[in-house]
Structure prediction request, 224 residues.
Amino acid sequence: MADHLVVVIDGPAGAGKSTVAKMAAKRLGFAFMDTGAMYRALTVKALRAKLNLEDEQALIKLAEVTHIDLVNEAGKPLKVTLDGEDVSETIRSTDVTNNTFYIARTPGVRHVMLEWQRRMGREQSMVGDGRDLGTVVFPDAAYKFYLDADFDIRCQRRIDELKAKGQPVDEQALKADLAERDHKDFTRKAGPLKKADDAIIIDSTSMSIDEVVDLIVRRVQSKA
Ligand code: C5P
Prediction:
């Protein structure tokens, strides 16, 4: 390994991980690995196939015959492909968001994802964001961050994001969904959201995105 640097950012939904990881990757000249997008893409395929999402064996089989790619192109948003199809927009729908936990809680599926993610980490320097990257997937990552923010702030950021896209927002439903996702992420048996002992905690409650990115980039550059 060695000549590639892996930087991981774990934390709860809505803490700003993806935005921060993407910007930090760009500034460092690294690839960006959005692991949530991978779980979401597999959810799209399972929903389309009308699989019983409680059927673990069916989900594992599906993962084994699926090809998910994260395409990093300079100056463009991350492209997520599912068996060659661009699903970058589809994976953000509420239906997909609310069903991803079936995929994420299945140990056999997490194992397949882990193999994909480790392969990407061997091929290039990257900044990845997720839930279990620092604890399970890359326990030896060069840099580990745990990005958190108060629940109300995380909700507000999601609300602002949707409003900026011109989408209708049911604020009460959004808060309930986020609370439920937190609960599921923290309590599932396989790959729960957990701060790695050696991760640096960043509480972004009163920080701007740029401040968080700066902190991460400076930390990596100071030791690289
Ligand atoms: O980060 P994002 O909200 O896109 O992730 C979607 C879902 O995928 C999360 O709710 C989480 O349950 C799951 N996930 C995971 N492990 C990761 C990344 C995401 O279980 N490394």
In short: Residues 46 and 62 are 8 Å apart (CA to CA). Residues 107-123 form the longest helix (17 residues).
